[in-house]
Design goal:
Elements lengths: L5 E12 L6 E11 L1 E12 L2 E12 L8 E3 L5 E12 L2 E11 L5
Antiparallel strand pairs: 1-2, 1-5, 3-4, 4-7, 5-6, 6-7
Length: 107
């Protein structure tokens, strides 16, 4: 059985700022990269309005990934990149570790 680690990186592009809200228009440029996505578990946050469950994962890649990008797996799961940490051995770059949060109502 052949294992494929291809995912779709949706690079965040900020457009023109809205005069009313002050928010920038979002768009995404898609490309295919190799990334290992490993589920880490769920965090529950009790709020006044109810419980918010957040599913986290870790991603490992040698490709360029930035905070705010989205990752779509072959199973159509969407994740937002929260942090990116490069891993070095001596003076040689090995890979980036990314903290990912699932976007359950996306896509």
């Amino acid at each position: 059985m052949l294992v494929d680690f291809s995912v779709t990186r949706r690079r965040l592009i900020l457009g023109v700022r809205d005069d009313t809200t002050g928010w920038y228009a979002k768009s995404y440029a898609e490309s295919t990269i190799k990334m290992v996505v490993v589920p880490r578990g769920a965090n529950n946050l009790s709020l006044m309005t109810g419980v918010y469950a957040r599913l986290d994962a870790a991603g490992m890649t040698q490709d360029v990934v930035l905070v705010g990008d989205e990752i779509e797996t072959s199973a159509s799961e969407f994740y937002e990149v929260k942090t990116v940490k490069p891993y070095w051995v001596g003076d040689s770059f090995e890979y980036r570790t990314c903290d990912l949060t699932e976007l359950p109502m996306h896509g």
